[in-house]
Amino acid sequence: MRFRRSAALAFAALALTACGSRSDDERADPTKLDDAASLACDDFATGYQAARTTDARVDLANKVNKWAQSSKTNGIAEGATILARGSDGGASAWQLAAHTFAQSCLDAGWKA
């Protein structure tokens, strides 16, 4: 009897776990701004004006990418990758990369 009750409790716990746990991929709507994207866009907006040197740009791109690469929002991870590539280039490469990332944020619904 004791074995049956333990087995029943284990089965019930397993069933509840299976029903209640969907992966983040299943729950995430890639057309909506997720938390990681919001944090990446916020960090970018906060740090952009101060990122005047190559080192500062690289630091900002790394900070943004920390969040962006875990985002499921369309365009955010890709835009952050472009930002990272442009961060150690010249001023025009940085501006183009920054514009691309900023547009990704705006397209996802981020509000300044």
**Major beta sheet, specifics?**
none
Mean pLDDT: 82
- What's the total count of β strands? 0
Name the overall outline: elongated
| Helix share bin | over 70%
State the secondary-structure class.
mainly alpha
The separation of the N and C termini measures 62 Å
Radius of gyration: 21 Å
- The low-confidence runs, each spanning 5 or more residues with pLDDT under 50, are 3-26
SSE blueprint and pairings:
Elements: H1 2-20, H2 24-27, H3 35-47, H4 54-68, H5 76-87, H6 91-107
Helix pairs in contact: 3-4, 4-5, 5-6
What does this structure look like?
- The structure is a single chain.
- The chain is an all-alpha fold.
- It has helices at residues 2-20, 24-27, 35-47, 54-68, 76-87, 91-107.
- Helix 3 runs antiparallel to helix 4 (54-68).
- Helices cover 71% and strands 0% of the residues.
- It contains 6 helices and no strands.
- Mean pLDDT is 82; it is low at 3-26.
- The termini are far apart.
Question: Which key features would you list for this structure?
Answer:
112 residues; mainly alpha; 6 helices; 0% strand; disordered N terminus
Brief rundown of the structure:
The chain has 112 residues and is an all-alpha fold. It is built from six helices and no strands.
